[in-house]
Amino acid sequence: MVVALAEHGNASQPKPARIVVACMDRRLSDYLDRTYNDGSTLFIRNAGPDASRLTATISGLVNKYKDGDRKIEIVVVAHSDCGACSIAYSALKEGKIFDDIIKSSVVEGYKSLSFSTRNELESKNPGLQIDRIYASLPGSGSISVLPDFVKISSLKVPEHLSGEHELIIARPSDVKYAEMMQAAKAPDFNTYIVQAATLKEILPDTFAAVVILGARRISFVAVNAESAEAVADDMKSLRKQQFIKDRMDPDKDIALVRVLR
Ligand SMILES: [Zn+2]
Questions:
Q1: Most buried by CB count within 10 Å: which residue of 80, 202, 229, 255?
Q2: Does the structural domain 3-8+15-258 have CATH classification 3.40.1050.10?
Q3: Is the pLDDT of residue 195 over 50?
Q4: Which pTM value belongs to this model?
Q5: Cα(85)–Cα(121) distance, rounded to whole angstroms?
Q6: What pLDDT, on the 0 to 100 scale, is given for residue 16?
């Protein structure tokens, strides 16, 4: 079910052996394109990242690519100055109150972790996610899960970005973010990107992007004809969400974009 939803821009590419699970942060897309997008890597993203909320997508992709003795590598990309860690820290250490959907997802995801500072939480995040991925893939001896912790200060992020934040929602794919953002006319470094096999898995992250991070436009990106209809259905169901209706014009501010390959 889930595996059928992954998208390949180019069907002639060899099957990917690498899956990147990264935070949705708007500043990471350029880094992910440059560091990992070799045309045969699939990308999945949510807030954190939090692998516990992506187990269906991850195991679906792993099952699809488990192919004889072929090795599969999963890379967890987390980073400094992370909004998800900041939300979890404020809720768990400072008693800040968040909406139920954020409490039961982003905050809950870090409840089991022992930490005293925000930096400590961030630095323990990749290890926590790696443990979760291994735990969700029992008997997967040929899979290695590796950490990549990105210092935001090491990236070339423009210092004074103006303009509003945006959100791209896509299925797991090997398509470059630069290409997605160009097709969606969404600004680089100002666009959060969430990717999973189902909208349900990334609904809390979409809520966070719109309600907490202030994204004012959402583009659903479909990269092949077969999945465009399913992506359009996702768009229809998101338009009905109350938090969207409260903050956006669902018809004007949410659109379907096709990246033709
Ligand atoms: Zn983050």
A1: 202
A2: yes
A3: yes
A4: 0.92
A5: 7
A6: 45
pLDDT value at position 69?
A: 67
CA-closest candidate to residue 112, choices 100, 129, 98, 96: 129
Q: How far is the CA of 6 from the centre of ligand 1 (A)?
A: 23
Residue 229 pLDDT exceeds 60: yes
For residue 190, the one-letter residue type is N
Cα(228) to ligand 1 centroid in Å equals: 28
**pLDDT tens track for 93-136:** 999 999 999 999 999 999 999 999 999 999 999 999 999 999 99
Bridging pattern class, strands 218-222 and 254-258: parallel
Q: Give the Å distance between the CA of 242 and the centre of ligand 1.
A: 25
Q: How far is the CA of 150 from the centre of ligand 1 (A)?
A: 10
pLDDT at 3: 45
Q: How far is the CA of 27 from the centre of ligand 1 (A)?
A: 9
Q: What is the total residue count of the chain? A: 261
85 CA distance to ligand 1 centroid (A)? 7
> How far does the centroid of ligand 1 lie from the alpha carbon of residue 5, in Å?
25
| Positive or negative: CA dihedral 228, 233, 234, 238 | positive
Which runs of consecutive H residues, i.e. helices, occur in 49-189?
A: 55-65, 83-94, 100-102, 118-136, 177-184
Residue 111, both tokens: 């409840």
Cα of 83 vs centre of ligand 1, distance in Å, is: 5
Helix (H, G, I), strand (E, B) or coil at 67: coil
pLDDT value at residue 1: 38
Domain extents in the chain:
3-8+15-258
The rounded Å distance from CA 12 to ligand 1 centre is 33
Q: Which H or E element spans position 232? A: helix 225-239
Average model confidence (pLDDT) for the chain? 91
**Region 77-106: what's the mean pLDDT?**
97
